[in-house]
Design a protein that fits this description.
The protein is α/β, with parallel strands linked by helices. The chain has helices at 17-35, 58-70, 90-100, 111-120, 135-147, 168-180, 196-206, 216-220, 241-248, 255-259, 281-289, 300-305, 307-329, and strands at 47-52, 73-78, 103-107, 125-127, 158-162, 183-187, 210-213, 225-228, 267-270. It folds into two domains: 12-134 and 317-329, Aspartate/ornithine carbamoyltransferase (Rossmann fold), CATH 3.40.50; 137-315, 3-Layer(aba) Sandwich (Rossmann fold). The strands form two sheets. Strands 7-6-5-8-9 form a five-stranded parallel beta sheet. It has a four-stranded parallel beta sheet with strand order 2-1-3-4, sandwiched between helices. Strand 5 (158-162), helix 6 and strand 6 (183-187) form a beta-alpha-beta unit. The protein binds phosphoric acid mono(formamide)ester (CP) and norvaline (NVA). Phosphoric acid mono(formamide)ester (CP) binds at residues 56-59, 129, 137, 271-273.
Length: 343
């Protein structure tokens, strides 16, 4: 039974563990079929609108390529391309989009906007990132973690997220950890911890499997995966940069920090884009301004030695977004899988 049919995905908590497994399992099947050039097109004649009010490389491209490869058509609506919220209310715009499209991918800063969209929507809405949550990223990350976890199940791993633990990736990880049951350590300066009620709830429901600490050694010890993200997110105010970077400086993913894991097989995740060298305008500027010559949130040395898994995270967005779109747009789908293991 496909309970995902017609469902919105605004946050990970919108999905049950069973539904997350359905998405990951279908993504695995499609990934294999695509590699063998035997992919079945489930989305013929479907029309997808992508409303992206913020910049994106991998999420936008993953939605578009996923739709193309599945036989669907896409309309991309970038910032300033529609009347949405400026000359036309979200509810009126949705009256139009409901009649034209089968599903909508939305990226914007204010999570409330996607909530309003979904309220007026008769078609599935997929969150392609808001300042609060980034569920399509974490589905890809979960597939990547599954592919790279050996001799234990994903629910037995320890993932240490190091950096800005108040951002959309950390918020989404918190929800995912509760659903899947893996151990989550948030390692960050107190100023960038999640809200205190969220922390209390985590300790209450998952005491043995949750830690929020400023102490790097304690936080990363025995981790299987270290996950980081940019220190300054889209939508962060410019006047916060100095404070943020100065406080987060000592949480940089570098050789010394990885040595504290005492795990020679430690794997490093990054949702990207990453500031790991001076080949970007911001990377160069931050490097000089904050005296971080080897990289900002991650050193180039560590990025280069873990880039295979990091770019697999990116590629897996294609497969997981494809699976999410198929399962929310098709009532019945038959797919043959030889070996499917649930998380
Ligand atoms: N990780 C991620 O969402 O990347 P983009 O901003 O390039 O979509
Ligand atoms: N926290 C980052 C994630 C980018 C994919 C941001 O919101 O900018």
């Amino acid at each position: 039974m496909n309970n995902l049919y017609k469902k919105h995905c605004l946050k990970i908590k919108d999905l049950t563990k069973h539904e997350i497994n359905q998405i990951i399992n279908l993504a695995e099947v499609i990934k294999k079929a695509r590699n063998k050039k035997q992919e079945i097109k489930y989305l013929k004649n479907k029309k997808i609108a992508l409303i992206f009010e913020q910049e994106s490389t991998r999420t936008r491209c993953s939605f578009e390529v996923a739709a193309f490869e599945q036989g669907a058509q896409v309309t991309y609506l970038g910032a300033g391309n529609t009347h949405l919220g400026y000359k036309e209310s979200i509810s009126d715009t949705m009256q139009v989009l409901n009649r034209l499209y089968n599903g909508i991918g939305y990226r914007g800063i204010h999570h409330n906007n996607i909530k309003i969209l979904s309220h007026y929507s008769k078609i599935p809405i997929w969150n392609a990132l808001t300042k609060k949550y980034h569920p399509t990223q974490l589905l890809a990350d979960l597939l990547t973690i599954k592919e790279n976890t050996i001799n234990k199940s994903v629910s037995e791993i320890t993932l240490a997220y190091v950096g800005d633990a108040s951002n959309n990736i950390a918020n989404t990880l918190l929800e995912l950890a509760l659903i899947i049951g893996f151990k989550l350590h948030l390692v960050a300066p107190k100023e960038y911890w999640p809200k205190s009620d969220v922390i209390q709830k985590m300790y209450k429901t998952n005491k043995k499997k949750f830690l929020c600490t400023e102490n790097i050694k304690e936080g990363v010890k025995k981790a299987d995966f270290i996950y980081t993200d940019v220190w300054v997110s889209m939508g962060d105010k410019k006047n916060e940069w100095d404070k943020k970077i100065n406080l987060l400086k000592k949480y940089q993913i570098n050789q010394k920090l990885l040595s504290y894991t005492k795990n020679y097989n430690i794997q490093v995740l990054h949702c990207l884009p990453a500031l790991h060298d001076q080949n970007t305008i911001i990377g160069k500027k931050c490097s000089t301004l904050y005296n971080l010559p080897d990289g900002i949130e991650i050193t180039n040395e560590i990025f280069q030695s873990h880039k295979k898994i990091i770019f697999n995270q990116s590629e897996n967005k294609l497969h997981t977004i494809k699976a999410l779109m198929i399962l929310t747009l098709k009532k019945n789908i038959d797919y043959i899988s030889t070996k499917q293991t649930n998380i």
